[in-house]
């Protein structure tokens, strides 16, 4: 069993930019307003 297994996580996904086949995203993971992770993603058309 995972300690604190009943914790609820929220994911905020925000599009930062979209240029010429490229999209940049910011993902923030929080629980009870405490940030656990921030991810920056760049998606490119291949």
| Strand ordering within the main sheet | 1-2-3
- Give the percentage of residues in beta strands: over 45%
Largest sheet: 3 strands, antiparallel
* Number of E strands: 3
What value does the average pLDDT take? 86
Structural class: mainly beta
State the shape. elongated
Euclidean distance between termini CA atoms: 41 Å
Radius of gyration: 14 Å
Oligomer: single chain
pLDDT < 50 runs, ≥5 residues:
none
Reading the helices and strands in chain order gives EEE
The helical percent reads under 10%
Number of helices: 0
Give the secondary structure arrangement, pairings included.
Layout: E1 10-19, E2 22-31, E3 34-44
Antiparallel strand pairs: 1-2, 2-3
């Amino acid at each position: 069993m995972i300690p604190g297994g009943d914790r609820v996580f929220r994911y905020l996904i925000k599009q930062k930019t979209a240029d010429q086949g490229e999209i940049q995203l910011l993902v923030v993971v929080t629980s009870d307003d405490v940030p656990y992770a921030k991810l920056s993603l760049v998606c490119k058309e291949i």
